[in-house]
Amino acid sequence: MSIRKDICDVLVVGGGPAGLATAIALRQRGADVMVADALKPPIDKPCGEGLMPDSRRELDRLGVHLETRYGAEFHGILFAGHHDRANAEFPQGAGLGVRRPVLQQLLLDRAEEMGVRLQWGVPVTVREEEPVTVGGELTRYRWMVGADGNASRVRVWAGLDGGTLRSHRFAFRAHYRVAPWSDFVEIHWGETGQAYVTPVGEREVCVAAISRRPGLRLENMLAEMPFLSEKLAGAERTTAERGALTLTRSLPRVARGNVALVGDASGSADAITGEGLAMGFRQALLLAESLEAGGLERYESGHPGILTLPHRMAGLMLMMDRFPALRDRALQAMAARPELFRALLAVHAGEQPLPGFVLRHGATMGALMLAPHRA
Ligand SMILES: Cc1cc2nc3c(=O)[nH]c(=O)nc-3n(C[C@H](O)[C@H](O)[C@H](O)COP(=O)(O)OP(=O)(O)OC[C@H]3O[C@@H](n4cnc5c(N)ncnc54)[C@H](O)[C@@H]3O)c2cc1C
To answer: Which DSSP state fits 268?
Structure first.
């Protein structure tokens, strides 16, 4: 690799999933990489904890093999509304629900095995007209990667902030001790938002609730979802409810000079898509390929393509969130014609192109949406 040996070839700011994946991908191509994170493992973070089959495939490429024993497999997605339920299996493979600290540890173990230099409990300070410090010490690097999450300081410091914020919603998650009752990730649609349930162990599920309303909590939302409330009734809550913002955002640029952004720092799609982690892993692989080719150009040009489909899916789901009549009709249509939901899931999983879906199923979907709605 033609990256110049300095104190480190690449300094990765943030050791979350995207930062660790980037470090591993870069080491796979021979770079000398240092990761610094302000927190110390085990690092937990509010997340729905569902890794779709495509996320597992990206992780395989990084040498991180998400075996079933690390969590609980799921085989598709189920939508549940007031009246209708629709489900579809993934066209290929299974997803895995895995507790966030477990995923973090697997990535960390792989990074260590690959020889990434890891520094925990060490904040990186980036300030205008001041040298970059890692844990208070000056650090030289050839390239810097900002993998410092949604509220990225590296992004602001590098002049990469701005862009388009398409949605921002409020999310909460908690875990319950109960045997998963389904091998689907269940997305329950209520009036104020969605709650989705991911099996993460033999006797544990993760429940994430997302709403436009800032004051909403898991409990309020469950009250709108009798089926889900019944399933969780009496189950012990094993973690405290934790909140986070979830954004659909894109940036005009994700690289400048010798700085690139990956993961949530570089843009994101609403958590309901379940694609945040996969996007970070794809960006990691692309960035390593780009740096090996000598610069950030390939990364800059390929990055928007990684966000396109998750943004489209987020747009679709947010429309269903905003317009109850549309949501009811869409759920009714998918329940009546399961092959439509299967085809849509194939698009979501990246197995089929969206234009193909529109060509093949657009007219049927349109007719079903316009059909008289039940009272
Ligand atoms: C409620 C919710 C549910 C979700 N559900 C799913 C899901 O089911 N499936 C899915 O794929 N995605 C999901 N996502 C999205 C997913 O969680 C994110 O896309 C993912 O966490 C992004 O990883 P990241 O490494 O970019 O950022 P983060 O995980 O935020 O990591 C950033 C790291 O940077 C560190 N850091 C920040 N600033 C500094 C600094 N100055 N110096 C040193 N370190 C620093 C932080 O300590 C942190 O460890 C969900 C998100 C939310 C909010």
So the answer is: B
> 179-227, pLDDT tens digit by residue?
999 999 999 999 999 999 999 999 999 999 999 998 888 888 988 998 9
Is residue 235 domain-shared with residue 366, that is, in the same domain?
A: no
Which of 245, 268, 297 corresponds to the end of one domain?
Answer: 245
Does any domain span residue 288? yes
The number of distinct structural domains making up the chain is 3
pTM to 2 decimals? 0.95
Q: How far is the CA of 149 from the centre of ligand 1 (A)?
A: 5
Give the whole-angstrom CA distance, residue 267 versus residue 252. 10
- Which of 245, 265, 291 marks a domain boundary? 245
| % pLDDT > 70, the chain | 97
3-state SS track over 136-205: CEECCEEEEEECCCCCCHHHHHCCCCCCEEEEEEEEEEEEEECCCCCCEEEEEECCCEEEEEEEEECCEE
* Angle of the 276-292 helix axis to the 53-61 helix axis, nearest 10: 30
Are both 124 and 177 inside the same structural domain?
A: no
The model's pLDDT over 277-313, given as tens digits with 9 standing for 90+, comes to 999 999 999 999 999 999 999 999 999 999 999 999 9
Atom of ligand 1 lying closest to residue 246 CA: 53
Reported as a single tens digit per residue, the pLDDT across 219-270 is 889 889 989 999 999 999 999 999 999 999 999 999 999 999 999 999 999 9
- Ligand 1 center to residue 204 CA distance, Å? 22
Residues 152 and 180 in one domain: no
Q: Whose CA is nearest to atom 44 of ligand 1?
A: 37
Tell me the best of 12, 22, 277 to mutate to test the pocket of ligand 1, counting ligand atoms within 8 Å of each CB and taking the most. Answer: 277
Query: Is residue 33 located within the same domain as residue 135?
Result: yes
| Whether 171 and 239 share a structural domain | yes
* Residue 27 to residue 11: CA distance in whole angstroms: 12
With a 6 A CB cut-off, is 14 part of the ligand 1 pocket?
A: yes
Q: Report which ligand 1 atom has the smallest distance to the Cα of 266.
A: 26
Residues 151 and 261 in one domain: yes
Q: Are 130 and 278 in contact (CB under 8 A)?
A: no
CATH number for the domain that contains residue 141 = 3.50.50.60
Cα 255 to ligand 1 centroid, rounded to whole Å: 19
